[in-house]
Carboxypeptidase regulatory-like domain-containing protein
Amino acid sequence: MRPEHWLGAVLLAAALLSIARVAFAHLRAPGGRRPAAWRSLALAVLTAASALLLYRMLLPSAPAGPDRLVVLTADADGLPVPAAAQVIALPEAGEVPPGASRMPDLATALRLHPQVRELVVVGAGLHPRDRDAVDGRALAYLPAPVAPGLAELDAPGDVAPGARFAVRGRVTGIEGARVSLFDPAGRVVDTAATDEAGSFRLSGTARGAGATLFEVAIQDVEASAWTRARVPVVVAGSAPMRVLLLAGAPNPDTRALRRWAEDAGTSLRWRMAFGGGAVTGDAPTLDAASLGKQDLVLIEARAWDGLGASARAALLAAVREGLGLLVHAPQPPSNALRSWLRTGGLAIETGRLREWRVDAGPDDLARLRAWSGPGSEDAPFDPQLAGEAPPALGYLPLTGGLPSAGVGADDMMRWQALGKGRIGIVTLADSWQLPLAGRADLHGELWSAWAGTLARPGDAVVTGFGGEARVGERVALCALEADAQVLAPDGRTTALVPDPAADGCAGLWPRVPGWHRIDGGGVLWVRGADDAPGLQAAAMQAATRELAGAGADPGMQALPSPAVRPLVWFLAWLLVTALLWALHRSRRGRAGAPAD
């Protein structure tokens, strides 16, 4: 007989003897001295309940039924293992406890135990290979503690040359951590402190087209794989953007915009009016043929006021065919312009003039140089700019349309899709003061972002595939060309077979870390198996918790840890036993006791 059976037998015998004694005393007492029936019944019930709770307290992990399976994963050593008829250990699990079986994967274990309907996962969580095998079964998760370090890292998607990009993430186990972003040369680009939730946001600047690696590191801690992680940044190169600039009169903004277009490498054509019908520049006639050869038309509000009805109609027609159109209106737009924008689907209203100051970036000289770049021959980097605030600029706040997120104030620029193209308006005034103050990088960042939002999309030369890829784990690649192949860093070529049932996506199991080249100009960064373990651990736990949240049995979600159960049973036993003792000592219900 097993020990729990002996304990159950002893407690059952003791409870039966105690109840029999209460019943015998009740029946043998003379009629006038016999206690009340409710008293004897309450004593018997409390005695039985006390014995049952004592048994559950001493043996809180009574074996579960055969429909429960405990799954041990990585880092399960030292964690309490819930009782179950079957306990298995997956390959990544450490030492296998007595009675557990080693299994190659979860699907194999479930084929051997088809009666299983409940899963209890203990440790780091389920690998991607095992998640599909859950197949709607109820699942509870007892996670292992994660070492302090980087737990989440959101790399940017494709970035345009010269544009700013953001890197977001989360740190666990380190309060008030300082996190820095390093460029490929090892220079600090940006530093930020984490918030109460451990989240942070860093930003950097993309330079030439191609694929490169930045790095995120937690400062003031010992460097390890848990505190540092590389960030892939893919700068998508394409043919130069074709920009048509139309100005209503000579002004500093037009000069600054022409310089921005030249520095950004665009194919610029422009026209400037002097009044009285005099114009200068090489802009073509505004008709369907010439506008179809442009990617973006940047037109001042005064220049729009001077257009004829046919030119205005040609602009809207070209936008419907894919052209991007940005109206620069530092002064309140005329009623005619508002009506024309409303015809294009962009209904806007303006408010009173506001002041806005652009973020100057870091005040450290080295970080500012990495932030803004080396400059050019005629406008080299000025070290005196470190710590100097750029000039404040004015703008008219806008309502209506969609905001251009990420640059400027949220209500400074608004846009709306129209057919295949986009139409927008920006009210920033005197942006030429930024390059005049030596911050042409900030001026270019603003206008490059707005142009990228509206311009006709070009054919990207380099495209990054999103998502985390790691050696030995399956990654899905979509939007592939026919007969696509992947070239690994070691020179091996893998043919991809798209699955029609998966919208033409194909699966890849990388063998080596590094940049993988994909037919059609795409690239994929693959982490090593031991690279950034905190990101992998947090992702596994999040995916396993998601499976637990989708379990069929709500009771499984609240499965308590075995370390908590004894305390619960002890408190219940203590309460019932105290009531039993109090009733024994009380005179309520005894013979001769005063009536209530």
